[in-house]
Amino acid sequence: MNIDTIIIGGGVIGMLTARELALAGQRVTLFDRQGTGRESSWAGGGIVSPLYPWRYTKPVSALAGWSQRHYRALCEQLRAATGIDPEWTSNGLLIIAPDEQRDATGWARRRAAEVQCLDRQQLAQLEPALARPQDGAIWMPEVAQVRNPRLVKALRRDLELRGVPIHEHEAVTAIATRHGRVQGIHTAHGNYPARTVVICAGAWSAALLEGVAPAPPITPVLGQMILFKAPPGTIRRITLESDRYIIPRRDGRVLFGSTLEQCGFEKRTSDTAGRQLRESAIQRFPRLADCPVEHHWAGLRPASPAGIPYIGPVSALEGLYLNAGHFRNGVVLGPASCRLLADLLLAREPVVDPTPYRIGAPRQDPGAE
């Protein structure tokens, strides 16, 4: 079978990119070094918003805004096609950061987003499980979440129904080139010719460019999370305080995380981190003291300068594209990032200005918006 485009990486970014290209009539094949969706896409929380969104640059906000406007429809399409519900749920985001109210309200005016500043009584009403309601909380009622494991399962099934071949547990060993142009890929199982190749391998993306093109600074950052098994309604709202967030699922389970650790590509959990996360969660939400920790896991986020992903062609090699470096925001930025990548590859009108995401574009410091 002739292949138009090979996607390297089967996380949310890789599968959404494959889906966008398949919708446009491309013959797409996807490769993943293990099972699809088993890295940072599975490990993250699924909040459909950057944390403290006013701290980010305009390029991140632009992608987030487009994705947020289209996420519910995407999840409904996936549920209708596959029978798997990604559980898009709009239960709002509470941010306990009184000293950031001015930044939050200014950002909201510029972005036409809804932000409310709460006193302690209003906060306690919105989230009764909080141990210490205080004045000055920030409420973003429009923020939603998805259940990442269900999202990646739905995307995988959607690609199968569209006839997209998926090669799991087949690592790409090299990108085939000739005279400055992509020819396909090599794996331990064979050679696969293709006109274009898109690298969507998260924290492993830079390594795939070795010997082919200069690699942008995409590095792994470890994050650990825990999952409480709780009755439905124990926690009502997504709540963020000091880079720790809690996310209540529809069935009552509650995620709490996450750590930020520089450990290279060593993906592991630690008893110390697990204990600290549990203690912090119970300190903030005492109801969780009677709820068992059902799971403790870790993932490697693909960090990039200012969290601005690299989306577009790799100029050193014709036919090679990159869609990686989303750091903590792969889920929320995914729909827009993958639509933009498809627009560039197919020479369509881009949904957002592609300039800030080019590999050689300068990355501003966070908070530049």
From TrEMBL:
Its GO biological process annotations read: thiamine biosynthetic process; thiamine diphosphate biosynthetic process
Q: In which pathway does it act?
A: Cofactor biosynthesis; thiamine diphosphate biosynthesis
Ranges for domain FAD dependent oxidoreductase: 4-344
Give the SUPFAM superfamilies listed for this entry.
FAD-linked reductases, C-terminal domain (SSF54373), FAD/NAD(P)-binding domain (SSF51905)
Please give the Gene Ontology molecular function terms for this protein: flavin adenine dinucleotide binding; oxidoreductase activity
> Which InterPro entries did the record assign?
FAD-dep_OxRdtase, FAD/NAD-bd_sf, Gly_oxidase_ThiO
A GO CC term?
cytoplasm
Q: Mind telling me what this protein is named?
A: Glycine oxidase ThiO
In its UniProt entry, the species of origin is given as: Candidatus Sedimenticola endophacoides
